[in-house]
């Protein structure tokens, strides 16, 4: 039985494009693996806290010295356990102000831990989360994969780096772009991602079988 960790991070609830496409990605994974187990983290509805003086200390190796530090460590350990259990990550990452939502960044802040999800050696940093594949649904009002706004994309390169830093390099980005270019462009963009989900999830599942 395989496990998918499904992380959504939209602030827009039912209106979210990324969450809808994440749902369709999971449905497609399930069509290839009916026994798929899903661990869901909806960071838009239930955000993990931003780092503060206690959590920053606890997550960087200090012995917890108060309840806030104990709780921060416990949450981080839970999130990392979910990550380690999963074979597949499905991440919904809207673009907000050129980057990922702060809720998703806060999740990364809780799972990137030296000695646990990455390490430093003489040959440089090494990701310790091996053998996972990831599908990242990106939703954007504008167009960033090509054209004049491309240099303003602080979303995809950041996500790619954070995942790679932990050792997750088998990553497929599914981009719903031009969502703010009118109803027709929006529908076309969503439909294009739907097609891409069918193709890439099918290919990945066949490769893994
Ligand atoms: C607070 C906020 C900031 C946004 N910033 C950007 C942006 O910098 N660039 C962009 O192309 N679209 C931007 N958008 C549009 C969203 O990327 C678009 O609405 C997308 O559908 C959001 O994903 P979601 O529907 O899953 O929440 C922004 C939307 C919101 C709500």
Automatic annotation (TrEMBL):
<dbReference type="InterPro" id="IPR023048">
    <property type="entry name" value="NADH:quinone_OxRdtase_FMN_depd"/>
</dbReference>
<keyword id="KW-0614">Plasmid</keyword>
<feature type="binding site">
    <location>
        <position position="10"/>
    </location>
    <ligand>
        <name>FMN</name>
    </ligand>
</feature>
<dbReference type="InterPro" id="IPR003680">
    <property type="entry name" value="Flavodoxin_fold"/>
</dbReference>
<dbReference type="InterPro" id="IPR029039">
    <property type="entry name" value="Flavoprotein-like_sf"/>
</dbReference>
<protein>
    <recommendedName>
        <fullName>FMN dependent NADH:quinone oxidoreductase</fullName>
        <ecNumber>1.6.5.-</ecNumber>
        <ecNumber>1.7.1.17</ecNumber>
    </recommendedName>
</protein>
<keyword id="KW-0288">FMN</keyword>
<feature type="binding site">
    <location>
        <begin position="139"/>
        <end position="142"/>
    </location>
    <ligand>
        <name>FMN</name>
    </ligand>
</feature>
<feature type="domain" description="Flavodoxin-like fold">
    <location>
        <begin position="3"/>
        <end position="199"/>
    </location>
</feature>
<keyword id="KW-0285">Flavoprotein</keyword>
<dbReference type="InterPro" id="IPR050104">
    <property type="entry name" value="FMN-dep_NADH:Q_OxRdtase_AzoR1"/>
</dbReference>
<keyword id="KW-0560">Oxidoreductase</keyword>
<comment type="similarity">
    <text>Belongs to the azoreductase type 1 family.</text>
</comment>
<feature type="binding site">
    <location>
        <begin position="16"/>
        <end position="18"/>
    </location>
    <ligand>
        <name>FMN</name>
    </ligand>
</feature>
<feature type="binding site">
    <location>
        <begin position="95"/>
        <end position="98"/>
    </location>
    <ligand>
        <name>FMN</name>
    </ligand>
</feature>
<comment type="function">
    <text>Quinone reductase that provides resistance to thiol-specific stress caused by electrophilic quinones.</text>
</comment>
<comment type="subunit">
    <text>Homodimer.</text>
</comment>
<dbReference type="Pfam" id="PF02525">
    <property type="entry name" value="Flavodoxin_2"/>
</dbReference>
<comment type="function">
    <text>Also exhibits azoreductase activity. Catalyzes the reductive cleavage of the azo bond in aromatic azo compounds to the corresponding amines.</text>
</comment>
<keyword id="KW-0520">NAD</keyword>
């Amino acid at each position: 039985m395989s496990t998918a960790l499904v992380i959504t991070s939209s602030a827009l609830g039912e209106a979210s494009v990324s969450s809808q496409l994440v749902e369709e990605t999971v449905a497609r994974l399930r069509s290839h693996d009916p026994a798929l187990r899903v661990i869901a983290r909806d960071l838009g509805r239930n955000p993990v806290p931003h780092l503060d003086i206690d959590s920053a200390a606890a997550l960087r190796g200090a012995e917890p010295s108060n309840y806030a530090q104990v709780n921060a460590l416990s949450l981080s350990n839970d999130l990392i356990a979910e990550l380690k259990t999963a074979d597949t990550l499905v991440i919904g990452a809207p673009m907000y102000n050129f980057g990922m939502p702060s809720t998703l960044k806060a999740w990364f802040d809780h799972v990137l831990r030296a000695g646990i999800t990455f390490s430093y050696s003489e040959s440089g940093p090494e990701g310790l989360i091996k053998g996972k594949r990831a599908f990242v649904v990106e939703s954007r009002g504008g167009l960033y994969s090509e054209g004049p706004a491309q240099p303003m994309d602080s979303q995809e390169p950041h996500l790619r780096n954070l995942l790679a830093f932990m050792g997750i390099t088998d990553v497929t980005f599914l981009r719903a772009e031009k969502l703010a270019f009118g109803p027709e462009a929006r529908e076309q963009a969503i439909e294009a991602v739907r097609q891409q989900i069918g193709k890439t999830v099918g290919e990945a599942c066949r490769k893994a079988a």
